[in-house]
Specification:
The complex is a heterodimer. Chain A is α/β, with parallel strands linked by helices. Chain A is about 30% helix and about 20% strand. In chain A, strand 9, helix 10 and strand 10 form a beta-alpha-beta unit. A 7-stranded mixed β-sheet of chain B has the order 3-2-4-5-11-12-15, sandwiched between helices. A 4-stranded antiparallel β-sheet of chain B has the order 8-7-14-13, with no helix packed on it. Classes of the chains: A alpha/beta, B alpha+beta.
């Protein structure tokens, strides 16, 4: 296995802030909220009735629209993200010439299918022996990709794991190019009710755009979101040789487990600190090299405060200087897809040299003393970013991206 | 672990924990720490029964009928998260696939996880149903037995595996059209050891593959089969060539991954 640098050369995304890089960047840096009342199903008896919804995935260029419309919403989302990332990277028309792999973070592919099928009158959940092929295989078949494919879930940390593993597949020589990221359409009756009954979600139903309030004293839970982001990864040298646009280098990845509780973050910050330090060591960087932190910060009091302890320990005195924001304030919490979309936020910060804000941060929690970027984006030199993503099951991850 | 530890867990999580416990029991690793290790779990059709029941409750009772335990314990991360908690594993943990391709996906990701030698080892747990209760909403008779299966593998980091590969214990191959031919894997003689908690503990003697079979729902019965040793990671990219689907091993022998491909474990079921 080599340690050669791995570059991100393509982006495809479906988010509550838009479905193109330009739209997402514009909305993210303008502090626009993508949270609204859920309209896809009746939410009248749900404790939380809002979400960061994405609407319909566009049909990729050159695809038969009628055929695309026949696919499930989850399939369309994954296909859009993958196809548009390959197009963006310049691989779409030449994808048959190289081994393109796929590492996809997706937590509830099967549950989503069973629920969706049941709600539409199907009985597939009672007939598992007749099951359809996995999402990764369907996606690869439809895109005519010839490399290996796998799906994984570390809950909200999935996207970072997927990017880290795709990087390894490239360094092992298993693929020439690899799609990596995550896709999750979790705004369904079961998931909205499950998280709602867990009392994890904001109940600020009357003002959706103000409901996701990471680090704010008046936060009352997170807002569920949906969507996805896929990236094209390839060896840096090969990317430069073919003149590709390089968005960033995947410089470092770190992962750990709390081994404490399936839902509640550990009161002991050491495992999450270890994940951040591991990512920095992997990138051969010091904490003081980081120019922007995209915090996991979901807008729950326990989680936000726990992460602040981690950041304060890892960054030491530098914490007073490094801008920290939570883009979940705008997108909602995309669960399995959160880490991937937040990696995209980091890329945008490096591309535009502007740090996206934490909106709705009107009254910062005194237990969350950080160098916040409240409500308005801020021009800043951004060469290195750190993106934290922590998930149910005690997963902690950190992704370090470096400007090309 | 407290008695309530698995109270809300899925059947496959319970069988997975049982398989891991059996490995530890058999190897006498009670005093070993796996703190620096990782854990990957690849369940098959995970959470289906709970989702089916929950959909019925949602229809009958509305949103309040959905258990708050559904997402933490019936999502893909649940098996690996539970095992990391049980073994106090602070390395990475995540779930793989959740569907019929879980096993092959898990091997691909596990080998990549171990490739740089950053982890001393990895628990890889594959679970699924041998016989699965189909919870039709109009069912009036008692549910038939539901057989769960779990395969717990202890994977060493690759440098030791490659440097010391001498014997054969895992084979993969296929039959029928399009098969590229069989291959066999090699097992290490001197895999890395779990970190001892105290001097004089039982050493990590060998890698182990343990297959567990359990009667589901109430976990009334569990029998464990065992095979020793592991594989050579150099051969595993071969798996990429196949389109793997379907079931878990039935305790020993061949694990049919698809209509044409199988894994053969040098295993012998007991009980």
């Amino acid at each position: 296995m080599t340690r050669e640098p791995i570059a991100i050369t393509g982006v495809g995304a479906l988010t509550p802030l838009g479905h193109s890089y330009a739209d997402i960047a514009a909305n993210l840096l303008a502090g626009v909220s993508g949270v609204r009342r859920v309209e896809a199903f009746d939410v009248a008896d749900h404790p939380a009735q809002i979400g960061g919804t994405v609407g319909e995935a566009p049909c990729p260029d050159g695809w038969d629209a009628a055929e695309f419309a026949e696919f499930s919403k989850l399939d369309r989302a994954a296909l859009w993200c993958c196809a548009s990332a390959l197009e963006d990277a310049g691989w779409w028309s030449r994808r048959g010439n190289v081994r393109i792999g796929l590492v996809l973070g997706t937590a509830a592919e099967w549950n989503w299918h069973w629920e969706n099928d049941c709600m539409n009158g199907g009985h597939n959940i009672y007939q598992p022996q007749d099951h359809l092929e996995p999402l990764t295989q369907r996606t690869c078949r439809r895109l005519q990709l010839t490399g290996p494919a796998a799906s994984l879930s570390a809950a909200c940390a999935s996207g970072n794991h997927a990017i880290a593993l795709a990087r390894r597949w490239l360094q092992l020589g298993w693929v020439d190019v690899c799609l990596a990221g995550a896709c999750d359409l979790a705004i369904t009756p079961l998931t909205l009710a499950g998280f709602g009954n867990l009392r994890a979600l904001s109940r600020r139903n009357s003002e959706p755009e103000h409901a996701s309030r990471p680090f704010d004293l008046d936060r009352d839970g997170f807002v569920i979101g949906e969507g996805g982001a896929l990236f094209v990864l390839e060896r840096d040298e090969a990317a430069r040789k073919r003149g590709a646009r390089i968005y960033a280098e995947v410089a470092g990845c770190g992962a750990s487990s709390d081994a404490y509780h399936m839902v509640i973050p550990s009161p002991h910050p050491e495992p999450a600190i270890a994940a951040m330090k591991q990512a920095l060591a992997d990138a051969r960087l010091d904490a003081s090299d980081v120019d922007y932190v995209n915090a996991h910060a979901t807008s729950t009091p326990v989680g936000d405060a726990a992460e602040v302890k981690v950041l304060q320990t890892v960054f030491g005195s530098h914490i007073a200087k490094v801008p920290v924001s939570s883009t979940k304030s705008m997108t909602g919490h995309l669960l399995t897809a959160a880490a991937a979309v937040e990696a995209l936020a980091c890329i945008i910060a490096m591309d535009r040299q502007v740090v996206p804000p934490t909106i709705n941060l009107d009254n910062a929690d005194p237990d969350c003393r950080l160098r916040h970027v409240p409500n308005q984006a801020e021009s800043h030199r951004v060469r290195v970013t750190a993106s934290n993503s922590f998930g149910f099951g005690g997963s902690n991850t950190c992704l370090i991206l470096k400007a090309a | 672990m407290p008695a309530t530890f698995l109270k809300h867990a899925d059947n496959q999580t319970v069988v997975a924990v049982a398989a891991v416990s059996a490995v530890i029991e058999r190897q006498g690793w009670h005093e070993c720490s796996f703190a620096d290790w990782g854990v990957l779990a690849a369940p098959n059709r995970f959470g289906r029964i709970s989702v089916a029941q929950t959909i019925e409750r949602l229809r009958a009772e509305g949103a309040w009928g959905v258990s708050p335990h559904l997402i933490p314990h019936q999502s893909l991360h649940a098996v690996s998260g539970t095992i990391s908690q049980a073994l106090k594993i602070h390395g990475p943990n995540f779930g793989v696939s959740g569907g019929p391709n879980a096993g092959p996906d898990a091997f691909l990701l596990a080998i990549a996880m171990l490739a740089d030698g950053g982890l001393p080892g990895l628990w890889l747990i594959l679970t699924g149903y041998e016989q699965e209760w189909i919870p039709a909403p109009n069912q009036t008779t008692a549910a038939p037995p539901c057989l769960g299966a779990a395969l717990a593998l202890v994977l060493p980091s690759p440098p030791a595996t490659k440097n010391n590969a001498v014997s054969t214990n895992l084979a993969a191959g296929g039959e029928g059209p399009g098969v590229r031919g069989d291959f066999v894997g090699h097992a290490p003689t001197n895999p890395p050891h779990p970190r001892p908690l105290s001097p004089g503990h039982a050493p990590f003697r060998q890698d182990e593959i343990t297959a567990g079979r359990g009667r589901g729902e109430n976990g009334a019965r569990l029998s464990i089969g065992q095979a020793l040793n592991l594989f050579d990671v150099a051969h595993l990219p071969e798996f990429q060539l196949a389109s793997f689907i379907d079931d878990l091993p039935s305790g020993a022998g061949k694990w049919r991954l698809s209509n044409t491909f199988w894994l053969e474990l040098d295993a012998e079921a007991q009980g």
